[in-house]
Amino acid sequence: MKRVEMTEAGDSFSLYGYVHEKIDGVTLPGAGRPAILICPGGGYIRVSDREKNPPAAIFFAHGYDTFILTYPVGDDAAHLKPLAAASRALARIRGRAGKLGIDPERIAVLGFSSGGHLAASLAVHWDNPLLHEKIPDVEPGSNRPNALILSYPVLINGIHAHQGSVENFGRDDERIAALFSLEKFVTPQTCPTFLWHTADDVSVPVENSLVFAAALAAMKVEFECHIFAHGQHGLSTCNREVGTTNELCAQWIPLCFGWLDVLFKHKP
């Protein structure tokens, strides 16, 4: 395992990753390893520690290079700054894929809670003109995920919205606020998606995942959705390390591997 620092001078975000080091005599098939960009949650107010390294370690152990994004939050979350940060982060990983030994066509984005909103925003807004006004240096398409993984995500506005995320995302700009409810922007070009949620989540209602899944189905986008009956919000990896042990909900991890490994033709 090798830690790589990806943050550059002038960035409004931090990005680091864990990549597999080359082993003498071992040749991997294809263009390189698949990779995961992780967007932790926190209501666009903070960035949750429990959704950083713990999931990164699990995906790394399964053969994925993993990258963790700490994006602008609080007062800095307005004006699409988190989405601009995620776009630059994904484009940077893809731009350095050859050097890092990563397949640029097998990069997924994993988001938790409001980080799920950020990840899904990247999946549906990667080519939005409002976004590219903020990131003229990023080539459209270089910031498009190849797959999307959403854990108890914030996705919609209205009666089932996570109001804190709504307020922090669209503060003082009606044009940006109109982009919040992501099911409205799903198209046939949206990348394949894996979602999981708990039915009794009181912080981010399960309707967020159900409405988005319905939009994916309507556009005939490949997706897999798992709803567990019980579990608190913010489960992350559902184990003792993150203080949220839940053996049933922990099945999201092997279920996700089963889906993503087939999609990416990955053999761990």
UniProtKB/TrEMBL annotation:
UniProt entry keywords in alphabetical sequence? Hydrolase
BD-FAE-like domain segment(s): 33-216
- Stored InterPro entries: AB_hydrolase_fold, BD-FAE-like_dom, GDXG_lipolytic_enzyme
Tell me if Hydrolase is a UniProt keyword of this record.
yes
Alphabetized GO MF terms: hydrolase activity
Q: Which Gene3D superfamilies match?
A: alpha/beta hydrolase (3.40.50.1820)
This chain belongs to which protein, by name?
Pectin acetylesterase
Origin organism is: Parasphaerochaeta coccoides (strain ATCC BAA-1237 / DSM 17374 / SPN1)
What lineage is this protein's organism placed in?
Answer: Bacteria, Pseudomonadati, Spirochaetota, Spirochaetia, Spirochaetales
